[in-house]
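Sample A.
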Amino acid sequence: MRTTAILLALSVICCTEGRAAFEPVFESPWLQGGIASTLFPRTPLVLTANPACMGLLEGHGIAASLSRPFSLKRLDRSAIAGCLMFSRYALGAALSLSGDESYSEATVTAGGAWKLINGVALGASISIRRLQISGYSRATGATADVSAVWSPVEGIFSTALFRSVLRTGLGASGDGAAPRSLELAVGVAPVQNVVCAIGAARQEELDIEYSFHTAFSPSPILSIATGIKTDPARFWAALELSLSALSMEYGYREHASLPGTHSIALCWGHCASRPSVLKLTDPENEDNQSDVQFPVNVNTVTEEELQLIPGIGPSKASAITSWLRQHGPVSSVSDLQEVPGIGPSILQVLGEYLVAE
């Protein structure tokens, strides 16, 4: 029994999304696709997978998740994460717990993202990991991840992650607290409410692994995601239901030789990323849009009109109109400061193009 507990614990701690028998589960159902799915985060739990992508979130939020890896109760994992968004910074923290009476694992993570310039964000996180096995010694180690995310063209996104760029040993074993890996992904939002991404990850002593992620939001309250990771091929799917500031996710993931993994998550806050859509320039349409006369009534403004305002892309335009639908007419443009992702600088610009009538 002790030998089994040790093997399970070490596998969960020391193996990442590679081909190990017991690979760990990302803390959010929406992140089961690995590096590819971090480009379109839905909750602050993205901090545990890619700190720079926390800068893609639209606003403050807090999320909690539960998962049962491979239908094994003894591996049950829970996590909670929160983030604070500022005009150029995002700060977050997360706590993850798993195990039973045979072993227990705890990981505390703190990190942030810095929006360096328009379309580029850098991120870093530090994790402290503690492992305890019944009847044996305890072990503690630390790791640091660094990453970047950038949008070279509106509607196209890329990210690079160096996991465990710095690390300590795990107790007296001399092994690293977590494996090192280099992970890359590129994604696109070809049309409104549809995204897709591909990624590649190279962990030390393992072959390159590839991942694919796609998501579709047929309505404001429903989002569906699915993807594949290789090698071996593993299929996963996730479903999200949103009601105002509350959203709930469910995820399922297959494994080549083990039972499936189930996970759920709850998030409070309008923090899901709303990526800009890839634009194919239409000169005739642009000429028609230029006929809009500002200032425009904020209570009747459309997404298309908002996108004509400097610094307001499709994501922020959608966030503003969604917030107005939920909260009703406003008496002042300054009320838009309550919209997730709208900081003082953007609010000042909006005041030059909008009026409250």
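Sample B, a different protein:
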Amino acid sequence: MSKSLIAVVEDERDIQDVIAYNLRREGYEVVTAERGDEGLALVQAKRPDLIILDLMLPGLDGLSICQSIRSDTATQEIPIIVLSAKSEEADVVIGLGLGADDYMPKPFSPRELLARVKAVLRRGSSNSKGAEEMLVHQNLRIDVLRHQVFLKDTELRLTATEFRLLSALIEQPGRVFSREQLINRVLGESVVVIDRNIDVHIRSVRKKLGVDAGLIETVRGVGYRIVSNI
């Protein structure tokens, strides 16, 4: 099996070196860039299996890069872990809202970053294991093996995290999942994330569902569920 290729776009050389060293020690192949414009070109040329992306970059900021990656059919399925020295909740919301799959504030533990990397890559490689090939609920149809979601006859473009989140809800219509349960189902029990991450992903999925956004119901004080009938 070939090694996963990870692109690290980070302008602080010492942080970039630490990330690259730890990834290579775990057996990953790593390519790096220090400028945002160079990082975007690198992603488009190499098509890595995962991107670790800083938000504050010279040349082109990380949010613009994230937006460009998600708007390009050739790269829109590549998972992204966003890094930022800013810790405000607004940065989490913006990064995840633009399609990032996970978020880590600086400073961070290399061990925790590796856990996030493994969790994100595992989600992409094990989507179909033990799952139904097709999930259908009202106007939604999820092709698990092909990693495609259709609303009536229109294909929806979801990130890897959004795909797993929607699949987890649709597998058991009517069941209420707490945020913690969804985090464990979507990100893995070994990964520590804030509840706000799930809220932002839910908001993004609802936006993509359009008039069918009501399929995902908020159960106040508990979590979320796919309603059986609307």
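Observation for Sample B: Confidence is low (pLDDT under 50) at residues 127-131.
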